[in-house]
Amino acid sequence: MVLLDIWMPDCDGITLLKEWAKNGQLNMPVVVMSGHASIDTAVEATKIGAIDFLEKPISLQKLLSAVENALKHGAAQIETGPVFDKLGNSAAIQEMNREVEAAAKRTSPVF
């Protein structure tokens, strides 16, 4: 999990977030924060892949809640992430992936 500030001395958080997304490195939950935020920046950050956007000053409760949500999201990604990506993307693999995902959502036993 990453807490990412928008304004940093050598780079800005949005550029870094875009770079991670472009290079396939956005594989962890990211909470973006800023003391000089705009709605446009918050929307852009979440569209790129940030889990949450916090405006400074941040209360301890808000920060803890955002961290908890991000960690839950990260755990869910591990459980339901793109497990089959390494197998390829042929029609047969895509169909198998759909069937496994559908089976995972069922509450009854699958045989």
Task: Provide structural commentary.
This is Two-component system transcriptional response regulator. InterPro entries: CheY-like_superfamily, Sig_transdc_resp-reg_receiver, WalR-like. The chain is mainly alpha-helical. The protein has two domains: about 1-80, 3-Layer(aba) Sandwich (Rossmann fold), CATH 3.40.50; about 80-110. It contains four helices and three strands. It has helices spanning about 15-20, 40-50, 60-80, 90-105, and strands at about 1-5, 30-35, 50-55. A three-stranded parallel sheet has the order 1-2-3, sandwiched between helices. β1 (about 1-5), α1 (about 15-20) and β2 form a beta-alpha-beta unit. α1 runs parallel beside α2 (about 40-50). The longest helix has 21 residues, at about 60-80. The termini are far apart. The mean pLDDT is about 85.
In short:
Helix content is 50%, strand content 12%.
Architecture blueprint of SSEs:
Elements: E1 2-5, H1 13-22, E2 30-34, H2 39-48, E3 52-55, H3 60-80, H4 91-105
Parallel strand pairs: 1-2, 2-3
Helix pairs in contact: 1-2
Q: Please give the radius of gyration in angstroms.
A: 18 Å
Largest beta sheet, briefly? 3 strands, parallel
Distance between the termini: 36 Å
- Largest sheet strand order: 1-2-3
CATH class of the largest domain equals Alpha Beta
Low-confidence stretches: none
The proportion of strand residues reads 5-15%
- Helix fraction bin: 40-55%
CATH topology of the largest domain: Rossmann fold
How many domains make up the 3D coordinates?
2
**N to C succession of SSEs:** EHEHEHH
